[in-house]
């Protein structure tokens, strides 16, 4: 029991913290926050790096310039010492001019100059501390061998140069000059620049953050507008269009969304029209049957011939009702996933010949010529039943909506990827403005004529569904009273 109480207390304390962290992490998914962070990083980090590079470059360049000046002054002092025989007859000679020059250089650069002879004895020390003493160090020994050296102490802020004093005439090393100078002034300027740079970075960073917030809001505002319209559309307001100007990408999203809304509105209208048409199409035969039955019941002594005539009419209406129901069931099956296709390798040439063989008697009744033209043998992976249904509907429509003594031409061709079935006729044709609607369910170009021919208005919708299930496409070209041409393109190899 105690453990359960302890666990409950721990959960009560930890869960709010976990929830807070989760909410914080979720907030980073916001495009506004991410854009703001990116803009801040892009604006501030390069500024910090650039300023640090500038300061470091200044420091190094200033020290290098100081060293160059010291070497130049050292060279002048070396020449003066050689010309005044500074390292010979020191008791009888006057070296006041050389000593004065050495002192002036040391004072000018706030440093110390030490002159050492070949015996490692200190002849001159501008500080006056080490004169007459002997100096032994690695730098001095190496300098006698002809190699000068320099040492920069950043921590104690000074530079030390060890230079040989070479006699230009004899090329001999007459002595050594040790120059130690403070770089404190350079570091003071560096610190002052660093302080001012820091203030500048803070000011610029504040401006960058403010600009990033403003720009991130401007950047994401169109998306908020799109999101608001999408939410509005989900409530059923599909007639409102998105009109957002600005970024090219946002305008593309706006155009695509408007296209989607138009498509959804079309589908909604089609759905409503489909429900209305289904109700109407199913009700019409029932109404006819009811009228015929009531007419018979109203006649007490109706002759057998009249009963037979009425029963034939009732049978036709029942057959029509049955055909509508069967077509609807076919559409339901075709609307299911394409995984239900029974794919097999089919000889398309033979398939078309079988379909034409079944339809020739219908065409012969109106003296319509059926012509089949095959350009090559075609084997393809298809669902034979569904593809037969689709092509049968096309050819049957070409016969139904044709003129007496007309013609229907069916052709088959293929390339390396697709096969093509073309059905052309000399019939009544389809008005251009109605061609986009003919594949809708229960849509009829001429409703009176369609009912006369026994059409349900579902044949082309079934054909289109079957073609799309095969990853194919169907197109129509027609002019009114000049016939119609339907073209089907289907892959030779089915791709699930």
Describe what this molecule looks like in 3D.
It is a single chain. This protein is of the alpha+beta class and 496 residues long. Among the domains are: 238-335, Signal transduction histidine kinase, dimerisation/phosphotransfer (DHp) domain (Helix Hairpins), CATH 1.10.287; 338-491, Heat Shock Protein 90. The chain has eleven helices and twelve strands. The chain has a five-stranded antiparallel beta sheet, with helices on both faces. A five-stranded mixed beta sheet has the order 7-9-10-12-11, with helices on one face. A two-stranded antiparallel ribbon has the order 6-8. The radius of gyration is 50 Å and the shape is rod-shaped. Residues 447-454 have low confidence and may be disordered.
Structural class: alpha+beta
CATH architecture of the domain at 338-491: 2-Layer Sandwich
Strands of the biggest beta sheet: in what spatial order?
2-1-5-4-3
Query: Averaging pLDDT over every residue, what do you get?
Result: 78
What's the overall geometry?
rod-shaped
CATH class bucket of the domain at 338-491: Alpha Beta
Key features of this structure:
Helix Hairpins; phosphoprotein; alpha+beta; HAMP_dom; phosphoprotein phosphatase activity; histidine kinase; HATPase_C_sf; five-stranded mixed beta sheet
């Amino acid at each position: 029991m105690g453990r359960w109480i302890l666990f409950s207390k721990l959960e009560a304390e930890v869960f709010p913290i976990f929830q807070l962290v989760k909410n914080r992490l979720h907030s980073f998914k916001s495009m506004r926050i991410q854009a703001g962070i990116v803009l801040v990083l892009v604006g501030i980090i390069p500024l910090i790096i650039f300023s640090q590079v500038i300061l470091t470059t200044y420091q190094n360049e200033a020290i290098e310039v100081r060293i160059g000046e010291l070497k130049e002054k050292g060279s002048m002092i070396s020449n003066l010492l050689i010309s005044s025989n500074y390292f010979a007859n020191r008791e009888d000679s006057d070296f006041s001019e050389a000593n004065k020059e050495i002192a002036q250089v040391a004072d000018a650069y706030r440093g110390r100059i030490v002159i050492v002879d070949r015996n490692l004895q200190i002849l001159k020390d501008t500080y006056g501390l080490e004169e007459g003493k002997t100096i032994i160090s690695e730098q001095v020994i190496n300098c006698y061998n002809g190699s000068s050296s320099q040492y920069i102490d950043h921590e104690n802020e000074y530079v030390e140069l060890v230079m040989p004093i070479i006699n230009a005439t004899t090329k001999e090393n007459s002595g050594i000059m040790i120059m130690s100078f403070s770089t404190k002034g350079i570091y003071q300027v560096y610190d002052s620049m660093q302080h001012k740079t820091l203030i500048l970075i803070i000011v610029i960073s504040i401006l960058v953050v403010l600009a990033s917030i403003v720009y991130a809001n401007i950047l994401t505002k169109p998306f908020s507008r799109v999101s608001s319209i999408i939410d509005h559309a989900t409530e059923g307001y599909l007639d409102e269009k998105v009109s957002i100007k600005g970024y090219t990408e946002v305008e593309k999203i706006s155009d695509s969304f408007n296209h989607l809304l138009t498509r959804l509105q079309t589908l909604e209208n089609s759905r409503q029209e489909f429900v209305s048409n289904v109700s109407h199409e199913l009700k019409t035969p029932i109404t006819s049957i009811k009228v015929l039955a009531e007419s018979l019941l109203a006649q007490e002594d109706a002759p057998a011939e009249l009963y037979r005539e009425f029963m034939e009419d009732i049978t036709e209406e029942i057959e029509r009702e049955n055909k509508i129901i069967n077509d609807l069931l076919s559409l339901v099956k075709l609307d299911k996933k394409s995984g239900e296709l029974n794919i097999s390798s089919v000889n398309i040439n033979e398939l078309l010949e079988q379909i034409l063989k079944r339809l020739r008697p219908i065409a012969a009744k109106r003296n319509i010529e059926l012509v089949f033209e095959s350009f090559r043998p075609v084997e393809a992976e298809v669902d034979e039943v569904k593809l037969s249904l689709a092509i049968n509907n096309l050819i049957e429509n070409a016969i139904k909506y044709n003129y007496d003594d007309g013609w229907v031409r069916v052709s088959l061709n293929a390339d390396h990827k697709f096969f093509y079935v073309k059905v052309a006729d000399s019939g009544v044709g389809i008005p251009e403005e109605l061609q986009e609607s003919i594949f809708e369910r229960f849509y009829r170009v001429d409703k009176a004529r369609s009912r006369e021919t026994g059409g349900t208005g579902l044949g082309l919708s079934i054909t289109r569904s079957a073609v799309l299930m095969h990853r194919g496409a169907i197109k129509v070209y027609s002019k009114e009273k000049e016939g119609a041409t339907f073209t089907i393109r289907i892959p030779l190899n089915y791709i699930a």
